Amino acid sequence: MDKNPFVSQAVESVGGLAKTADVLGLRGYQTVQQWIATGRVPAKYCAALEAASGVSRFKLRPDDAALIWPELAKESANV
């Protein structure tokens, strides 16, 4: 699986690993570091990361975002 560059972009937009972890209420930056390494953000953090960074959850989880948030997928299709 290719890494998702939007995960790194979101983390940088928030202010780095530690700041992202703090904003999302995580215990440490290592969790965020793992997301960057795998290119995958758990669904339960995507909305908060989207709000903090401005990077769409559809970019954070391109493979399954429409399945997780079908109501948003319909809205984005109408734009």
Your description of this structure?
This protein is 68% helix and 0% strand. With 79 residues, the chain is mainly α. It has one domain (5-77): 434 Repressor (Amino-terminal Domain), CATH 1.10.260. Helix 1 packs across helix 4 (43-53) and helix 2 (17-23) packs across helix 3 (29-38). The termini are far apart. GO terms for molecular function: DNA binding. It comes from Castellaniella ginsengisoli. InterPro entries: Lambda_DNA-bd_dom_sf, YdaS_toxin-like. This is YdaS family helix-turn-helix protein.
Order of helices and strands: HHHHHHH
Beta-strand content estimate: under 5%
Termini separation (Å)?
30 Å
Regions with little confidence, pLDDT below 50 for 5+ residues = none
Strand tally is: 0
Domain tally: 1
Largest sheet: none
> What's the architecture, going by CATH?
Orthogonal Bundle
CATH third-level topology: 434 Repressor (Amino-terminal Domain)
- Cα-based radius of gyration, to the nearest Å: 12 Å
- The CATH superfamily is identified as lambda repressor-like DNA-binding domains
Overall structural class, as computed from helix and strand content, comes to mainly alpha
The first-level CATH class name:
Mainly Alpha
List the total number of helices: 7
Helix content: 55-70%
Shape estimate: globular
